[in-house]
Write a structure and sequence with these properties.
Length: 229
């Protein structure tokens, strides 16, 4: 396993000699609830809720973003995942393919996840917005507020043990904070009434532009891994 981790860290562009093991988790690990062990009719109910939600997103016209989209970008991955990754909005590649975090940023995110022992299919990945903003601009507060109920339903259905917010926009919106991402990193927040631990890290697109920040992103990923123990 150590050889595989070194391979994935190399994909992230992080010097292996600088990695001396993950820091201690700042809060106690969260015990998973009964939501991950549904059987029988409960599974059918959950599946129906997912189907209804996906259909609502696909047909959504609550804001003007629907006018230019190629398709909505609902989410992808394991629907009872322990880890939920949340970004801000689809880009051009995501709009074409209908899947979040594809292209170069998606490849880096996959490497980041593998570095802590998760394949892409092991986690659930979603965005705050389900439609691409024109020219990849930041989501407006109105757009984010309109789309957030969809995301909140996804969070409730997945019932993750940990949420990883990637990028400033996602972090600030989820935490309702205007603090810079540098101040939001390095600590554990509690999200929603369930108090789900939430960790903030840099967006993979930012890491591609600023590779020196990858070491800090690795620290964030270690915090996530620590919470899963």
């Amino acid at each position: 396993m150590s050889g595989l981790r070194e391979q994935y860290l190399a994909e992230m562009g992080i010097p292996i000699l600088k990695l001396r093991g993950p820091p201690a988790a700042p809060v106690d690990p969260v015990t998973p609830g009964d939501d991950h062990a549904q059987t029988g009719s409960a599974d059918l109910t959950t599946a129906a809720r997912w189907q209804t939600l996906a259909a609502a997103v696909q047909g959504c016209k609550l804001c003007t973003l629907h006018e230019r989209r190629t398709q909505t970008v609902f989410g992808v991955g394991r629907r009872d995942a322990d880890l939920l990754v949340i970004g801000e909005a689809p880009g051009a590649d995501e709009d074409r393919q209908g899947e979040p975090f594809v292209g170069r940023a998606g490849q880096l995110l996959n490497a980041m996840l593998r570095a802590i022992g998760y394949a892409r299919g092991d986690v659930y990945i979603a965005n705050i917005l389900k439609c691409r903003p024109p020219n990849n601009r930041d989501p407006s507060p109105t757009e984010a507020a309109t789309c957030t109920p969809y995301l909140q339903q996804q969070i409730g259905l997945v019932a993750p043990r940990v949420i990883l917010a990637v990028g400033r926009i996602a972090a600030q919106w989820l935490l309702q904070s205007d603090a810079p991402i540098g101040r939001l990193r390095g600590q554990v927040f509690r999200y929603g009434t369930s108090g789900t631990p939430l960790i903030v890290t840099y967006h993979p697109a930012y890491l591609l532009r600023s590779p020196l920040a990858k070491a800090a992103a690795w620290q964030d990923l270690c915090m996530v891994k620590g919470l899963m123990k």
